[in-house]
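Lecture notes, unit on binding sites. The following record was shown on slide 14. It pairs a sequence with heme C.
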Amino acid sequence: MRDNLPRVIVLAAALAFSAASNGQADLESTSVRQDIREFQDFFMQRFPSLALSDFNNGAYSLPQSARLKTGWDMLMHIPPYEHAMAEAREKWHRESGGRSLAQCMSSHPTGNRFPYATPNGIITARQAITRCLSWLNGPSHRGNRDEVVALVAVFREQAGDKPVNVDIDDPLIRRMYFRGRTVFWSRRGQNNFSCATCHVNNAGNRLRGEVLSAALGHTTGFPLYSLSELARTGESAWISLHDQYADCYIRSGAVPPPPHHADLLALQIYQTMNDTGVTLRAPGFRL
Ligand code: HEC
């Protein structure tokens, strides 16, 4: 698993070859399935006391966080995000002129199947919700950032503990998977770290007092409701997946790509597909 970037290049060459010859689509899906299996096996072997679904709670999933997890469990008796969620759930069902967000979003698959490919490209839960908000309220009222992230949390919460299940057979999704794979394993920034340096090779180790989470399960809790984010900003506790990516670029000493950059979507797709079979647990709560 360690630094297996060269395999990406070999695989990419194999894919280019197979795209040129007919009837090889299955082979491509098989390569992705195999790649995901190897990724998951690495973590299952490294943390043998955990089942696949146990990886859905960030760093608290790991035995190295047992002490912190006790405090986490106590706070979760009355989840600190409950107030923000109640407000967002009410907005989700609110009707105006016979229309509601719930009604608009019912044409989409459940939260565990996002992102997915449409004839117009890949759509994320956040994009689907933003489009529904403009359908409801007009294009100039797409909701502010916090409102939209809380609505994404409501949508993903509705999927309960369904396992992540993105369409591996879609060619556009697979293309983004390979792009995301390269982004994940590439070293960057002053520290010359890749995502894998911290979340694969050092998962479970401490970095400045923090236990590093395993990359497996990374997408399952998002958006996160974080008390330290609340303390830092003084107003918002929500962290979206792309906010987290930007923070982690900075941790590598690198400048994050601008919002909506295709590398961020590719990372999201790569990480989501690696979480195939892990159950959702949104919103995630972080101390
Ligand atoms: C220098 C080490 C470092 C690097 C490199 C790094 N991260 Fe992180 N990341 C952290 C730390 C520390 C946290 C907070 C503790 C934790 O959850 O791991 C974190 C948290 C996360 C989380 C949230 C986990 C959760 O559920 O709470 C995700 C997702 C994530 N990182 C993804 C990435 C991705 C993708 C990259 C590459 C673009 C990356 N990280 C690069 C250190 C790093």
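Take-home: Residues 132 and 145 are 15 Å apart (CA to CA).
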